[in-house]
Amino acid sequence: MAPSFWFILSLIGIIGGICGVVVSMIDDKDVPAVICSIIVLISIVCAAILPKDVPNGKTTYVIQVDDTVNFNEFYKQYDILSKEPYVNIYRVEERENND
User: Fold this and answer.
1) Quick one: 11 and 43 in the same domain?
2) Is 67 in the same domain as 45?
3) What angle do CA 79, 85, 86 make, to 5 degrees?
4) 10 and 38 belong to one structural domain
5) Residue 6 falls within a domain, yes or no?
6) Containing domain of residue 67, as a range?
7) What is the pLDDT along the chain (99 residues), one digit of tens a residue?
């Protein structure tokens, strides 16, 4: 899944706001520092609330794999998105062409 437009925009707002606060503090001007601080706070709230991933239209599964699974066949049918450390739990999605 790809990061959403709003999440990326929120991160840009956080970074830009922090830079604005630093520049305003160097110039000893309080009004821009307050405005940039408000932008940072709004961006943090938006980054926490808005969706962080955009679904790609594929169904993902979380499965537990035991030792009897033939991994050659498993890799042919599924794309592995992630694996939990120390346990055989995988997050997978089906491949486009199951030959």
Assistant:
1) yes
2) no
3) 120
4) yes
5) yes
6) 60-94
7) 556 677 777 777 778 777 777 777 777 766 666 777 777 777 777 777 766 665 666 778 888 888 888 888 888 888 888 888 888 888 888 887 655
